Structures are given as structure tokens and as C-alpha cells.
UniProtKB/TrEMBL annotation:
It comes from Branchiostoma floridae (Florida lancelet). PANTHER family: FI06469P (PTHR13610:SF9), METHYLTRANSFERASE DOMAIN-CONTAINING PROTEIN (PTHR13610). This is ATP synthase subunit C lysine N-methyltransferase-like isoform X5. It comes from the Eukaryota. Gene3D superfamilies: Vaccinia Virus protein VP39 (3.40.50.150). The gene is LOC118417726. Signal peptide: none annotated.
Amino acid sequence: MADLSPLPYVPSGRPQVDRVLRLLEGRPGKVADLGSGDGRIVCAVATQGFRADGYELNPFLLGYSRLLAHRKGLASLARFHRRDLFKADLKQYSNIVIYGEPVILRRLEQKLAEEVTSGSRVICCRYKLPTWAPTTTLGEGIETIYVYDKV
């Protein structure tokens, strides 16, 4: 199925989730969360009315995410897929959130360059893309978020 094994699970802290929500405020389009973990970002953006898709390889986290969305009444807006994020079609998303380890970001950067459309926003939590210059940086330390706006 996937050419990568699941990366370690590191949940986003509340400050990070709040910053992501603030960065998406007033933006149009769908949201993708690459490496969606326990689904907290996908569910948070769905509560703001976004249609959001989480991509996660870990079947236990995937099951938890789906249960969380169902319990919060968000199943129609928050969907989760067990799919290698490198096989996801990113062209359909105006907003992409990534909590990826540096080991995958170099490869992912190429995919983003090919698929992210003009007007889209890429939000990286904790680690920045290796060669892209962020438009904005929020927070510090492990709570840092790097924002890339494609023009």
C-alpha cells in the first residue's frame, strides 16, 4: 500500500491548533492534513465549516480520528483516508497542513511544487520545508508554524 512506514505519532498542542485555525480564518477551499494523526486539526477546521481530509497511515490513529469526527457530528465535513500522503491528489486543496518529520519534507516539497495551485496556503507545523522561504512564521520552538502562500 505505502512506500513509507508510519512516522512517530506526535500530537499537535492546543497553541498549534489555534494558530492553524487563525491562519485559515476567512480562506476559501478545502483543507488537507498530511499526517493527520489523531484527527484534531481536521476536526478543528471542520468545526469552522471547512471540508477537510486527513491522510494517515497508522490504522489505530485513523480509527480514532473517524470516531472523533463521528462523535463531534463532523463526519460530513471531516474525512480520513489511509493513504500514503505522496499518493494524495493535492491539486484539490487550497489549504494544506503538514506535521511531517524532516525526513519526508524534502521529498514532499517536490510534490507540493508540482501540485499546489496559485492562491493556496501550505502550513507546516514544527518543521519548515527545506528550500522554500516562509511567508510568515508564528510561535517558537516546537510550537513554530511556517506558512507558505503560493502566488
